[in-house]
C-alpha cells in the first residue's frame, strides 16, 4: 500500500496531443458560445506538458490521432493507485480505442492491469477522486453503479464512496485535491450537494474544505508539491485568490491556461494521466 495518506508525488505522466478533430467531436455538439481554436488549444496543451516535465515527470507524449477526437482527455482512460491500473470502460463506444492504447502503455511501464469484466459497466476516470485515503466515485452520465463497483474491486484496501452527480459533467468538474487531506470544491448547488454527500458518507471526517464561488476554479492539478490552477486574472479570479490565500504562502502554486478546453466543460486534470512506476 502507498504511504498513508498518499502525498501525490508521481514519477510519470501520459499525455496526448490535440487532434484537429476535437473541434468537431460529438462532445462539441451542444449549445456552446464559441468554437474551439485548435491552434490556441495546442499551445495551451504544450505549455501544460512543459510544466509537467519541469516538475521532473517522465512524460509519455502520444501523437494526435484524428480518429480519436477526445483522445487528449487521457484522465478518463484509467484509475491508477498502488501500481495497479484499472482500465476504464467509456460510455461512448468511440473512445474504446483510447483505453486500448493506454492499457498497452501502462502494461509496458510495469503496472498491474485490471480490466472490467462486467459488459454493462461504464466508468470515466474523471468521475473518480482519490483523496489519498479513499475513493469517491461520481455516478454520472458516463459512470454507472457497475463501473463504481469495479473501483472497489480493483482497490479493496481503500474505502469507496459513491456520489450522485446531478449534472452530466464529471465529478472532478466540481472538486479536486489541493493538499494533504485538503479539497477545493465549487459553490454551485451541484457542488454543495456533492459536499453534503461526502460529509455524510465518507469514512474520514477531517478533510479541510476550501469552498470557491466558481466550479471551474475548483479543479486543480496537484502534483509533486505544486498546485496548478486557472490564472488569477481569469474570469474566475476571485475564486483563485480565495484558493491561493487559503493554501497559504508555504504552498507552491502556478497557473495553467484551459480556456479552449473549458468550452467543452473539460478541466485541467483531464489532460494527463499521472502514475508511479513500480
TrEMBL record:
<dbReference type="InterPro" id="IPR033199">
    <property type="entry name" value="DDAH-like"/>
</dbReference>
<dbReference type="GO" id="GO:0006525">
    <property type="term" value="P:arginine metabolic process"/>
</dbReference>
<keyword id="KW-0378">Hydrolase</keyword>
<dbReference type="GO" id="GO:0000052">
    <property type="term" value="P:citrulline metabolic process"/>
</dbReference>
<comment type="similarity">
    <text>Belongs to the DDAH family.</text>
</comment>
<dbReference type="Pfam" id="PF19420">
    <property type="entry name" value="DDAH_eukar"/>
</dbReference>
<dbReference type="GO" id="GO:0016597">
    <property type="term" value="F:amino acid binding"/>
</dbReference>
<feature type="active site" description="Nucleophile">
    <location>
        <position position="272"/>
    </location>
</feature>
<dbReference type="GO" id="GO:0045429">
    <property type="term" value="P:positive regulation of nitric oxide biosynthetic process"/>
</dbReference>
<feature type="active site" description="Proton donor">
    <location>
        <position position="170"/>
    </location>
</feature>
<protein>
    <recommendedName>
        <fullName>Dimethylargininase</fullName>
    </recommendedName>
</protein>
<dbReference type="GO" id="GO:0016403">
    <property type="term" value="F:dimethylargininase activity"/>
</dbReference>
